[in-house]
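Researcher: Excuse me, tokens okay?
***
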Amino acid sequence: MSGGRRNEPSDLAVALRYDGRDAPRVTAAGRGDLAARIERIARERGIPLREEPELAAALAQVPLGEEVPPELYVAVAEVLAFAYFLAGRAPPGHDPGRT
């Protein structure tokens, strides 16, 4: 996730990891050159990027390795749903036949 505008380099990027069991965790965050490196690695690995400047700023305050705080769950869930949709996948443990 980045804080830049479409087609512009970001000055802030945050990476999340979600295992389908626990809350997502912040795995990387940085500005400037580090943000560019986070985005480059994501692109190389086929990880979708989403530009959400306010969310990126809030997540950058979370210590690395820590879970996303509950007050950001809905916003992060939207980002994760976007990433899974683009990848044509479902989250771990998701059973589409179950309601």
